[in-house]
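Customer escalation, tier 2.

The customer says the design service returned an amino acid string that "doesn't look like it belongs to this structure." They asked us to rerun it and document both sides in this ticket. The original structure tokens are below, unchanged.
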């Protein structure tokens, strides 16, 4: 083809792969000699379908749009809210739904796929959805709001399909306040991506989220509710589920109708047949993405589709680049659970070996599939902990360079081959970016940070799973080039938080003004102000609401309480070790009753009261403080709670006094400000009822004393804590924990939990053990002194606030209207308590309930 006269190019479809084609053509084609028309059937700009579930987190269609600047190019036209309905191959033109006839010299089919649903009676009922497009998620959100208002209760949702999108859909239902069940015809979730062990591990984690899982059954029929919409689902095993909303996520089929009707070759299982050049049976027509059938298979992932787009652009410009099948890789997103796999998941390769590590306590499962000599990586499965995924997936088909079992061992003995990958290894499969391209962006194009590398190469801009590896490659390349890697906290401080902490501590700085004058510039920002506030607080520089520090605090610290969704606050007094007297329980109950607060027992063995107005907080806390209680600091970047079992005192299996130790630890570390919140767990025996290994600091009793584990996390990115020391007596235990917390506060980055800090510590847990247990650096006395000073200086933040009239002036809803409060707070009753009313719940027939009661004398 004459690359200087590409002529009229038409793309049928306007999804992610079509957008990739447009970007590549603009970047690589000559300035003149071509025009490009893209015809799409959705009314939005092409958007990031990979992150579609983020719509339920508040991301608008505009925020999900993919690089809209390409449509500013005068050679490019986007025809949205239309679609190609027919192809006239003889006349070389396409006809659209709106009646337009668009001529082409080159036609690129990028029509994608459509969601397939099994045949079942009732799928045409209102309240039945697919989970594929922006219109789908907008419809789901609107239906839940409308139907909840009509029924007056949370909805019961059923997702048919337990694959990647099905689990995303179930998690989204939960975000919208509905109860979710998943129905999967196979015997396990994510049956295409996970083996039996991985599927079992994932099922446990999904069930822990409160999602019901039904496997080895299908949807037989949907039944209508009394008022018409869907209300039930009958399963193939004869059982019936309540179903106020049903989402089908049971697979996709290539959208190939117009290609079929125009006479193009179609694969046996559908899809437009293409060869290595992505050309169809018509020399003027190409096909890319989910509608293309290569070697009898249609891909459902964006990465191969993007590679196809690159191939077609290259072919049009005279290149001999071709497409070949890509190893499958997938990662669960938008659910809050880690699960990923790549390559030969089921070990089908001749002679393949499987190396597996399962930890039922931490609820993790890891498997590597390797060649018969245990050298070449063929695949991997990770559930509960996908830390290895980003680094190992690019090594697919290459030597591991270490014993496979070492990668999976809890202590991580082999390390992760994350920065020495060869230049030709594809690091970002979504955008087809190699390690060499990333290094070249740094050395040849002057990209000095990850953000600029992402802009230059597009690596990490789609699914984001490769970002950790991209970051390490960028930093390593900069360091090898003799360029100092910036660890600036923000534009106002050129050093990291750890470096600034050391300076503040050494120089005895006491205010933000002093810190900026000595080591920063400007007036600070939302990044550095809270970080400096935390540093100053950990150095005992004064109350967080003092005149010198109040402007630095974030929303929660301003009110010494966690703000809730309706603008009210939670009140959570400290309950050390989960132990509380009946007298204190009665005070809490009376306060909750008098102020009409929603009350529940938290997961950290405390009692939380929700719905307090800011002007009520001092009154509530006065009564709690008078009763001998203090702030639980649920709002602070500090110790949240120490969870414990009943231990030796009551349990017949207990071997140590876990409650007593839990109380001792909580009273020692309460109020200790740190880079992020941290939690403790103390179990009285190896049965681990306090789930200590899912905490920042976990302590498990043995016959000889205590084992200490650090760096655990049960949140968005779960991580199993690693053993730091074993069989310690009480005094030695506290000594080791003192050292750990003091070092963490000193060296961790802002908002860095202990889990990533421990995982990234140079030399790993073995080196951390040398520093903290063996005192290899001679820091022990200094670290212990840090905690001793904190213990000596501790005072309760709420007690101090109640004693200071100036601080109390902050607790009013309106600065210019003392005593007034927000008149728009609306509540409804649920299970005997008040909760914030949702949209549509308050009407003349369902008025606002009176939640806030005048305080009784």
């Amino acid at each position: 083809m004459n690359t200087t006269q590409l002529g009229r190019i038409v793309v049928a479809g306007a999804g992610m792969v079509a957008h990739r084609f447009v970007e590549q053509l603009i970047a690589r084609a000559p300035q003149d000699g071509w025009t490009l028309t893209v015809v799409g059937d959705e009314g939005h700009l092409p958007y990031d379908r990979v992150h579609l579930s983020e719509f339920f987190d508040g991301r608008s269609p505009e925020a999900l749009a993919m690089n809209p600047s390409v449509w500013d190019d005068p050679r490019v036209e986007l025809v949205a809210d239309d679609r190609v309905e027919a192809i006239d191959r003889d006349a070389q033109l396409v006809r659209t739904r709106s009646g337009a006839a668009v001529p082409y010299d080159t036609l690129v089919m990028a029509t994608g796929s459509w969601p397939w649903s099994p045949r079942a009676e009732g799928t045409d009922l209102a309240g039945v959805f697919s989970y594929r497009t922006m219109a789908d998620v907008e419809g789901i959100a609107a239906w839940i709001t409308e139907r909840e208002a009509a029924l007056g209760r949370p909805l019961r949702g059923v997702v048919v399909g337990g694959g990647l999108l099905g689990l995303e859909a179930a998690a989204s239902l939960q975000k919208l306040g509905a109860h979710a069940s998943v129905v999967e015809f196979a015997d396990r979730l994510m049956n295409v991506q996970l083996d039996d062990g991985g599927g079992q591990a994932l099922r446990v984690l999904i069930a822990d989220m409160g999602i019901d899982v039904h496997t080895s059954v299908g949807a037989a029929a949907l039944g209508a509710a009394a008022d018409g919409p869907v209300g039930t689902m009958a399963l193939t095993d004869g059982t019936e589920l309540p179903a106020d909303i049903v989402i089908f996520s049971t697979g996709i089929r290539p959208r190939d109708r117009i290609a079929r009707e125009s006479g193009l070759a179609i694969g046996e299982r559908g899809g437009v047949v293409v060869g290595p050049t992505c050309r169809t049976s018509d020399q003027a027509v190409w096909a890319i993405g989910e509608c293309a059938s290569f070697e009898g298979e249609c891909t459902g992932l964006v990465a191969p589709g993007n590679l196809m787009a690159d191939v077609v652009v290259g072919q049009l410009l005279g290149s001999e680049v071709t497409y070949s099948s890509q190893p499958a890789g997938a990662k669960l997103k938008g659910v809050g659970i880690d699960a990923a796999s790549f390559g030969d998941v089921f070990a089908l390769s001749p002679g393949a070996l499987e190396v597996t590590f399962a930890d039922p306590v931490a609820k993790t499962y890891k498997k590597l599939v390797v060649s018969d000599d245990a050298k070449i990586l063929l695949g991997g499965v990770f559930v509960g902990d996908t830390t290895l995924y980003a680094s190992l997936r690019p090594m697919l088909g290459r030597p591991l360079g270490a014993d496979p079992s070492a990668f999976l061992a809890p202590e991580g003995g082999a390390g992760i081959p994350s920065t020495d990958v060869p230049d030709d290894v594809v690091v970002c499969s979504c955008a087809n970016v190699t390690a060499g391209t990333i290094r070249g962006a740094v050395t040849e194009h002057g990209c000095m940070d990850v953000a600029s590398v992402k802009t230059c190469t597009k690596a990490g801009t789609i699914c984001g799973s490769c970002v950790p590896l991209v970051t390490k490659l960028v930093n390593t390349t900069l360091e090898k080039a003799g360029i100092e890697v910036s660890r600036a906290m923000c534009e106002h401080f050129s050093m990291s938080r750890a470096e600034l902490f050391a300076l503040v501590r050494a120089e005895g700085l006491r205010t933000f003004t002093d810190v900026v004058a000595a080591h920063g510039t400007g007036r600070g920002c939302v990044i550095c102000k809270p970080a400096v506030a935390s540093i100053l607080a950990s150095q005992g520089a004064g109350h967080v609401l003092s005149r010198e520090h109040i402007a630095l605090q974030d929303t929660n610290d301003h009110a010494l309480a966690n703000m809730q969704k309706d603008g009210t606050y939670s009140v959570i007094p400290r309950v050390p070790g989960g132990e509380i007297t009946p007298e204190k329980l009665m005070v809490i109950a009376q306060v909750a009753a008098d102020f009409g607060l929603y009350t529940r027992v938290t997961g950290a063995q405390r009692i939380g009261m929700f719905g307090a107005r800011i002007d009520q907080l001092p009154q509530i806390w006065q009564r709690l403080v008078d009763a001998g209680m203090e702030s639980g600091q649920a709002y602070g970047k500090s110790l949240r709670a120490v969870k414990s079992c009943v231990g030796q005192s009551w349990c017949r299996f207990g071997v140590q006094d876990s409650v007593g130790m839990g109380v001792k630890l909580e009273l020692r570390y309460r109020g200790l400000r740190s880079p992020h919140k941290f939690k403790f767990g103390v179990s009285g025996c190896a049965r681990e009822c306090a789930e200590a290994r899912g905490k920042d600091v976990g302590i498990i009793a043995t016959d000889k004393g205590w084992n200490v584990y650090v760096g655990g996390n049960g949140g968005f990115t779960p991580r199993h804590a690693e053993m730091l020391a074993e069989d310690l007596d009480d005094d030695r235990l506290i000594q080791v924990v003192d050292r750990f917390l003091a070092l963490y506060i000193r060296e961790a980055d802002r908002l860095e939990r202990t889990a990533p800090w421990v995982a990234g510590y140079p030399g790993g847990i073995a080196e951390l053990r040398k520093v903290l247990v063996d005192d290899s650096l001679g820091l022990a006395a200094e670290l212990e002194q840090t905690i001793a000073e904190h213990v000596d200086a501790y005072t309760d933040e709420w007690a101090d606030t109640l004693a200071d009239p100036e601080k109390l002036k902050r607790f009013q809803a309106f600065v210019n209207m003392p005593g007034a409060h927000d008149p728009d707070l609306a509540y409804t009753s649920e299970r005997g308590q008040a909760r914030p009313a949702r949209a549509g719940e308050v009407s003349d027939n369902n008025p606002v309930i009176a939640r806030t009661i005048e305080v009784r004398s």
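Tier 2 assessment: The sequence is consistent with the input. The two ends are 89 Å apart (CA to CA). DSSP finds 25 helices and 38 strands in the chain. Sent an explanation to the customer and offered a walkthrough call.
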